[in-house]
Design a protein that fits this description.
mainly alpha, elongated, about 210 residues
């Protein structure tokens, strides 16, 4: 934020132009904050498009159909639809946050919009991590309870069953860790910048 730092230095040198300097700083923070929220919206849309493409290329529904269990197909479809609906709600909220942050006209309202956006993004991250855990557990549970080959493998061999549980646990830890790191790097950097803007706004709101 080099431009902002220059403005603040000039503000300290010449207190006679306090109102003009505050307005300039607010305008710059407003612009930067709206750009960050817009970027969050774009990234979330691209993320959904990416996972939709992955789901299209690796069709899990065909695997369930091979098991000759129509209930699994229905369950998979309902689970997927609910997941996408929830994510669509998050994207809509991101869009609303962006529109709101673009039209706010006071420092306090901008600060409120920033806090609201940060909370929404954090909820979105925790939701996705939760779905990864649930999806992985369900995937292993369905596979070992419906796939004839896997059922035969573990039916009379407890050691294989426990090995499968360990693999399931390790898979969950690795996947959650990787996605947490991904979200931390991607959304975390943007949220840190947004919070920095919030702190600057607090200074000029005093």
């Amino acid at each position: 934020m080099e431009e902002l730092d220059l403005l603040k230095k000039d503000w300290k040198k010449n207190q006679n132009f306090r109102e003009v300097s505050e307005k300039e700083i607010y305008t710059m923070l407003h612009k930067k904050s709206s750009s960050i929220v817009k970027l969050i919206l774009i990234i979330s849309v691209l993320e959904v498009a990416f996972w939709f493409l992955i789901g299209f290329l690796f069709d899990s529904e065909q695997y369930f159909k091979k098991l000759n269990n129509p209930y699994l197909v229905d369950f998979f479809n309902v689970f997927t639809i609910i997941n996408y609906l929830v994510i669509a709600v998050f994207i809509y909220i991101f869009y609303k946050n962006y529109k709101n942050i673009c039209v706010v006209s006071s420092t306090k309202n901008l600060m409120k919009s920033i806090i609201k956006t940060r909370k929404t993004v954090n909820y979105y991250i925790w939701y996705n991590l939760g779905m990864i855990i649930i999806g992985t557990i369900l995937g292993f549970a369905l596979a070992f309870n419906t796939d004839p080959n896997l059922m035969k493998l573990t039916e009379h061999n407890d050691s294989v069953f426990y090995i499968a549980l360990i693999i399931c646990f390790v898979s969950i830890v690795v996947m959650v860790g990787l996605f947490w790191l991904f979200y931390k790097l991607l959304y975390g950097i943007l949220l840190k910048k947004l919070f920095k803007n919030y702190n600057e706004l607090k200074k000029i709101d005093l």
